[in-house]
Amino acid sequence: MILKSKICGVSDSKTLSYIINHINSPQFIGFIVNYPKSKRYVDLKKIKELLRIPKKKSFYVAVLVNPNHKILEEIKNLPFDYYQLYDCSPDRVKFIKKEYNKKIITAFTIENKKDIYRYELFKDISDIYLFDSKGYEKSMSFDHSLIENIHFDKEVMLAGNISFDDNLEKFSKIADIIDISGGLESSGLKDISKIDFFLNNIKQINYET
After folding, report:
1. CATH code assigned at 171
2. HSE toward the beta carbon, residue 18, CA cutoff 13 A
3. Is beta strand 82-86 parallel, antiparallel or unpaired with respect to 103-109?
4. Checking DSSP bridges between strand 103-109 and strand 189-190, what pairing results, if any?
5. pLDDT tens string 175-201
């Protein structure tokens, strides 16, 4: 199985250009669109500027926490491939997917095993399941082993305090996509050296397997 990657919380053009043009560029690049509590939040004006940079081989992902009609209308013509949705009911996700014709990453914040099985409510509307911590704007972790031995019907994306130099091979046994943000930062900013290490590490794991 090929382990894919997503770099999230990109907020400046220099970092974005580096990621896109990396020889082992990630499959997904995420932008925090409507959650100002996050230090990685990017306002609409800056989002539009960033998205002028051609995505090349990567998919652009809008990270949205219970988005209202206003923000959905404001971003509907931007070149996002996926909407990553937190705190939305199945009916709301279904509406957004149909109305805006986007692929959907449904995000579940996990504290215990019960939280994981909420994915069953979104089977017919999700393209990817994301299992994340309860931290939102904070880099918190959850017990990744909770999703072991569950046979999902979609690709699984895994987040939650993953570091650039973690043993990523252990995650490949439970997930299809590694989603990393804070683990690529130094002093609160994306660190090019950590990004390079992470992307090359993903490539090496795939080469070895």
Report:
1. 3.20.20.70
2. 16
3. parallel
4. unpaired
5. 999 999 999 999 989 999 999 999 999
